[in-house]
Amino acid sequence: MKIDLHLHTHPRSQCSYIDPADLVAEAKKIGLDGICLTEHQVLWDDDAVRELASDSGLMIFRGNEITTAQGDVLVFGLEKDIQGIITIQELQQEVQAAGAYSILAHPFRGFKTFGVSDLQMSVDQACKKKALQYVNAVEIRNGKVTVQDNEMARKVAERLELPGTGGSDAHNLDDIGTYVTVFEQDIQDDRQLVAALHGGIFTTGEGRIN
Asked: Taking Cα atoms as reference points, which of 131, 107, 135, 142 lies closest to residue 8?
């Protein structure tokens, strides 16, 4: 089951240009089995998701991208409304208490940019990133960062034996499904998605088939 775990729509995420209805149509067109709405600091209402998914044949799940002082974290299964910037330690306490699941999003975004590349960051150095201690998984394929950024995330996740996920981080329609997370089992609701993530039986892949 191919699911894009990282998507933003307008107006819930002001930085996105994707209309939710267009998102559903495009996801079906390119052959995705499911999508997860991960707005910035906003959790979709259950009823709104059911209405969006109605008669589409597409599974739609709910998540959240939460800003912490140590980076952005995708969270699944946490119903609590968290506003403002908190520490990643505080967020992971909430995640663990709820039995939820957290993924460090685009953890090395821009590490090759001017001023940072001079540091010649090694995998060993990257593994010392504090935020990695307080998440369940790492986003190793993100559609909005460079190949080098993703490769560093993959190597770090492998070294630390953390699961790796994929998502497009789409803010424009053409970006949907760039990367996905592929699950072996069918997933029908948010609870099953969280259970599948905790189960760890998934891989990453490319989601656009046409």
From this structure: 142
In 120-140, which positions are buried (b, 16+ CB within 10 angstroms) versus exposed (e)?
Answer: ebeeeebeebebbebbbbbbb
Nearest to 64 by CA among 35, 40, 81, 85: 40
Give φ, ψ of 99 to 5 degrees: 70, 25
CA separation, residue 87 to residues 104, 132, 138 (Å): 13, 13, 17
Residue 116's pLDDT is 47
pLDDT in tens, 40-87: 999 999 999 999 999 889 999 999 999 999 999 999 999 988 888 899
50 to each of 35, 42, 58, 190, how far by Cα in Å?
A: 13, 17, 11, 12
* Residue among 14, 66, 68, 65 at smallest CA distance from 37: 65
Report the distance separating Cα 168 and Cα 178, nearest Å: 5
What's the CA gap between 151 and 79, in Å, rounded? 32
Sign of the dihedral through C-alpha 143, 54, 102, 15: positive
User: Which has the closest alpha carbon to 193: 137, 153, 132?
Assistant: 137
Question: Helix, strand, or coil here: 55?
Answer: coil
Tokens 């072996």 correspond to what residue?
184
Residue-wise pLDDT for 118-164, tens only, equals: 456 789 999 999 999 999 999 999 999 999 999 999 999 999 999 99
